[in-house]
Write a structure and sequence with these properties.
The complex is a heterodimer of chains A (about 325) and B (about 280). Chain A is α/β, with parallel strands linked by helices. Helix content of chain A is about 35%, strand content about 20%. Chain A contains 11 helices and 14 strands. Chain A has a 7-stranded mixed sheet with strand order 3-2-4-5-7-6-12, sandwiched between helices. A 5-stranded mixed sheet of chain A has the order 9-11-10-13-14, with helices on both faces. Chain A has a two-stranded antiparallel sheet with strand order 1-8. In chain A, helix 3 runs parallel beside helix 4 and helix 7 packs across helix 11. Chain B contains 9 helices and 7 strands. In chain B, the strands form 2 sheets. Chain B has a 5-stranded parallel sheet, sandwiched between helices. In chain B, strands 4-5 form a two-stranded antiparallel ribbon. In chain B, helix 1 packs antiparallel against helix 9. The chains are: A alpha/beta (about 325), B alpha/beta (about 280). Chains A and B meet through helix 3 and helix 4 of A and helix 4 and helix 5 of B.
Chain lengths: ~325, ~280
């Protein structure tokens, strides 16, 4: 009934209210300690947000490989590059509004132009940051990073995928950006769910519309798809955690087979995940697309679920977008 | 790499590098004149005497590192690296041309010997901090040098790195400031007040040495003194004359970002030749 792809190995509790919850930042916290155990050259740099970014466990376990930078994100990016030039694998952790928000130029020249293996952890991304308000809700970080040559961009959908992304980033080459959220969200993937940089994964089979996106909002897409199923609408749901490089083949296949797409992300529409998907669709098999995401505005204070509802990034909004794109498909 | 130990040999090399700079710039038709010319003595002292590095040691984990922050001074580093044997001297004439390994601003991935790409100002000291910190973690004793312009001290990021190095007492780090008193829009103190460099650096926990940046003995002496200080990072404020060696360029901020034309280049080369293959710092 759920139509989940067997290959996705999703939790049987995915659509159940008792699903385990964790923030993607927690997956980073676990993953970076595991990575640190496996690779002694890993170092973690943090700009006065050690607990909040979940870097604390690494600091306690490897005090000599943790570097407190103070509130100095520009210097954090370049010091990381200097470490990478000398054999270290730095993880650079702070809020995404500050990195890549404040230090984009440092990332561009010192890590990307130098082609260095530095992993940037952008925590507290998305409107679900909640009560801190617009200043702390990074809604532009995917655009900022994906436009940089040599940069890999990853947006995990849950804590388990974030943990896997840390391991993949450790083994990658060149600069990597990993986007994390603050709020606890459903932990619906399993250790068997595939994760490879450059690959997407069909989470749910369907033929009428393909919902494609990245981040915890993918869980809302699965819930929406299930609800739409009751109305006889068959939705494919594709998790696309690797925004760059993106899985063009999987997107083209979805366009050809479903002939209508809804993109989902907790980020500005301009330049984000939906844009990346639309670039592929436009160049391969053009079909109607509706975009779920932030429409050129700032967020505000509120509870995460209130904000996701107000700014049309929740399950009902996804359902509406599916209905809208179906109408365009049938013209 | 050929190590030069006498003042005469070092000054002769610096003058050769100055001539290379003029020849490169007139061929390129664009680029920076003043900074590269005033850095020729420091670049020569570093690559031909101070640095424990060479074309054969490019991947040696124990080599000394020089991170150039003011990437617009590329011509002096290209000329110095070529003269030090990192790549053929004939390649200097390809500066800024399509397909060249000598980009307008320094690029680690294309030019042999360049330790880090740079040119967006205010990044080189942080890179050097990362290098020095990696040495701390690994218990290495290599020396990390950062070459900074005075103008880039307008950047807040420079001061973030100054604070970091002082806080962590990065003793194997030496920053050299090219204090030539000019930047694009005018004299440094009229564009944005910079002084007092010495007190500012000391306030952040650095040891500061002030030298004549055209005097080989002072440059090499300060670098050796810095290396011997094991409690804190060292800043060498090298007082230089912008455009040093070419009379009509000296002290002129208008020559920060412009190349000489053919006639000016001929005049510049003639002046450099009449200096008897050496530049004296005694007129400071």
């Amino acid at each position: 009934m759920s139509n989940f792809s067997k290959d996705a190995h999703l939790s049987p509790l995915t659509l159940h209210k008792d699903i385990a919850m964790a923030a993607t930042r927690d997956g980073y916290g676990t993953g970076v300690v595991e990575a640190g155990e496996a690779e002694e050259n890993i170092v973690v740099l943090c700009a006065d947000l050690t607990e909040s970014t979940r870097s604390l466990q690494f600091k306690e376990k490897f005090p000599n490989r943790f570097i407190e930078m103070g509130v100095a994100e520009q210097n954090m990016a370049v010091v990381a590059a200097g470490l990478a030039l000398n054999g270290k694998i730095p993880f650079v952790a702070t809020y995404a509004v500050f990195s890549p928000g404040r230090n984009w130029d440092q990332i561009r020249i010192s890590s990307c132009y130098n082609n260095l293996h530095v992993i940037f952890i952008g925590a507290h991304a998305g409107i679900s940051v909640g009560p801190d308000g617009a200043t702390h809700q990074a809604m532009e970080d995917i655009s900022l990073t994906r436009t940089l040559p040599r940069m890999t961009v990853i947006v995990p959908c849950d804590a388990e995928e974030a943990r896997k992304a840390i391991h993949a980033a450790k083994d990658a080459k060149g600069p990597v950006y990993i986007r994390l959220g603050r709020s606890a969200t459903p932990k619906f993937t399993s250790e068997h769910t595939p994760f490879t940089i450059g690959k997407g994964q069909i989470f749910r089979e369907g033929t009428d519309v393909a919902i494609i996106g990245a981040g915890p909002i993918i869980h809302s897409a699965l819930v929406a798809a299930h609800a739409l199923d009751q109305q006889g609408i068959s939705c494919r749901v594709i998790n696309m955690p690797s925004i760059k490089p993106i899985d063009s083949e999987l997107i083209e296949q979805a366009a050809r087979e479903c002939k209508a797409i809804v993109t989902v992300e907790e980020h500005q529409i301009l330049g984000g995940v939906g844009s990346a998907i639309a670039e592929v669709v436009a160049q391969t098999y053009p079909v109607p697309i509706e975009f779920i995401g932030m429409h050129n505005s700032f967020g505000e204070s509120g509870k995460p679920e209130e904000l996701l509802a107000k700014y049309n990034m929740d399950t009902p909004a996804i359902e509406k977008a599916v209905m809208k794109v179906l109408k365009r498909k049938n013209i | 790499m050929q190590r030069l130990t006498t003042r005469e040999d070092l000054e002769r090399m610096a003058n050769t590098i100055r001539k290379d700079i003029i020849s490169m710039l007139v061929e390129a038709g664009s680029g920076h004149s003043a900074g590269p010319l005033d850095l020729a003595d420091i670049a020569t002292a570093l690559y031909f005497n101070v640095l424990n590095t060479s074309p054969k040691q490019k991947s040696d984990p124990d080599r000394d590192r020089l991170y150039i922050s003011c990437g617009h001074t590329a011509p002096v580093w290209y000329a110095t690296l070529a003269r030090a044997g990192y790549f053929p001297i004939e390649e200097l004439k390809t500066l800024r041309k399509l397909g060249s390994r000598l980009q307008g601003h320094i690029d680690r991935l294309t030019t042999p010997g360049v330790e880090s790409s740079a040119a967006s100002l205010g990044q080189g000291l942080g890179i050097a901090c990362g290098s020095a910190y990696a040495g701390l973690i690994d218990n290495k004793t290599y020396q990390t040098y950062a070459l900074l312009s005075d103008g880039e001290h307008d950047e807040g990021s420079t001061w973030e790195a100054v604070a970091f190095a002082g806080h962590y007492k990065l003793a194997h780090l030496t920053a050299i400031i090219d204090r030539n008193n000019i930047q694009i829009d005018g004299p440094t103190e009229s564009v944005m007040r910079k002084e007092n460099f010495k007190e500012k650096y000391e306030g952040f926990g650095w040891h500061v040495i002030e030298i004549d940046g055209h005097n080989m003995e002072e440059i090499i002496g300060a670098c050796n003194e810095a290396k011997a200080i094991v409690e804190q990072p060292v800043c060498i404020i090298a007082h230089t004359i912008a455009g040093k060696g070419v009379g009509f360029m000296e002290y002129q901020y208008q020559w920060h970002g412009n190349p000489p034309n053919k006639e000016q280049a001929q005049e510049a080369l003639a002046q450099l030749r009449t200096l008897g293959d050496k530049i004296s710092g005694s007129d400071l």
